[in-house]
Amino acid sequence: MIIASTPTHAVTLLTAIVLVFAVASLFWWVMAQGARLAPRASMGLALVNALLAASLALHSLRGEAPHWMSYWASDVLSIAALGVLRAVMPTLVRGRLAWRSALALLLPAAALLGALPYSGDMRTETRVVFASLSTLSLMSALDTWRALRQRVSLAMSLLLSGPLFVISVLLLGRLIESLVLPGNNTDILGSGDFNIAWLWSMLAMNLVLNTTMAFLILAKLIRRIQRLTRHDPLTDVLNRRALSEAIDTEHARLQRGKPYALVMIDMDRFKQLNDSLGHAAGDAALQRLVEVLKPCVREVDALGRLGGEEFCVLLPLTDIAGAALVAERMRLNLEESEFLWQGQSWPLTASFGIAEAEPGDISADAVLSRADRAMYRAKAQGRNVVQALDA
Q: Where is the GGDEF domain positioned along the sequence (predicted)?
């Protein structure tokens, strides 16, 4: 018995795509509200999928629902969905919404579509819609690729941003079709081979895109966990373990003729500050100290908290003279800084001990010990001074 194959209809495919978008929207909403997994990004992605589902659902009602609903609202919702995607994708890698550029495309497109008749030849409407969609998608792809490129390899950044580039090409294909084949039916409910293939592609890319976004959110969560394991929760500088690893790495380079120096820092009269103003004031003072010291630290340097009010700065490719200049600049900046707690002023100063690594140092602990002894010498000499200790 021969069974005739049933032709694939655009309406059937469109229904499937709407269902996939609706399920994806629910998934991202649960991630945002229930799991609290990157809530801002997850809510944005839930909105993207919901807007696309609503847009396609309204599109399928053309000829039955009012024109403003099945045409203008459908088109504007689709552009709004890609606008939200363009705004929310950067938050997956760098944390800032890119909403200005999204609105800059959405608002003029919505106004232009509102001025068009939506009757007879609608190629102009099609071109406005798909030009806006492809532009927003391409902007999202480029922005995501650039942000990822700073964090992962070229191959991985292309792989993760790839779905957005492919979607941009698919949307651009609809725009090109309306330009080079003006006699074709460019409506997505059309039964032409190009339209059916395009809908199948969109269904597949919808699944791939949402999977990719889930992976990006997971990667962001992993990066956040890694950061928490390496940074001090109060001051956000490196914790003792991470700083020790950085110093050990630099000490290994010492054998290849690359010097480094350490600056040990201990805030003066910290116990007195805690006793007088309270521990909350002490925490704020430590945060203020870090805020003052950071401008003196280069990108290649490492600032870390050893515990309590003690900090240390690793200065690669720096000798004792260079370390003394850095420490003196830190000391002066801190002395001239202002610290207010509940209207009460408190002078902030620190004692600084510096040491340069020597080829004969067996381990980084020897350098750290010299910097520590130099810092205690600074304390003994009246505080708020810089002291060095020779090997």
A: 258-391
Which is nearest to 202 in space by CA: 44, 75, 16, 5? 16
Residue 275 predicted with pLDDT over 50: yes
Please tell me the distance from the alpha carbon of residue 359 to that of residue 278, in angstroms, as a whole number.
Answer: 45
Q: Please state, in angstroms and as integers, the Cα–Cα distance from residue 259 to each residue in 246, 252, 276, 325, following that order.
A: 14, 10, 42, 16
Q: 125, 177, 250, 309: which is the annotated catalytic residue?
A: 309
- Please give the single-letter amino acid code of residue 194: F
| Residue pair 241/347 in contact by the 8 Å Cβ criterion | no
CA-to-CA distance for 263 and 370, rounded, in angstroms? 10
- 309 tagged catalytic: yes
* pLDDT tens-digit readout, 98-120: 788 889 999 999 999 999 887 77
Sequence-distant (≥ 6) Cβ neighbours of residue 309 within 8 angstroms: 266, 267, 270, 282, 286
Contact assessment for residue 250 and residue 260, using Cβ atoms and an 8 Å cutoff: yes
Summarised one tens digit per residue, pLDDT across range 237-268 is 999 999 999 999 999 999 888 999 999 999 99
**Residues 279-288: contacts with CB within 8 Å, 24+ apart?**
281/341, 281/342, 281/346, 282/309, 283/234, 284/339, 284/341, 285/339, 285/341, 285/346, 285/348, 286/234, 286/235, 287/234, 287/235, 288/337, 288/339, 288/348
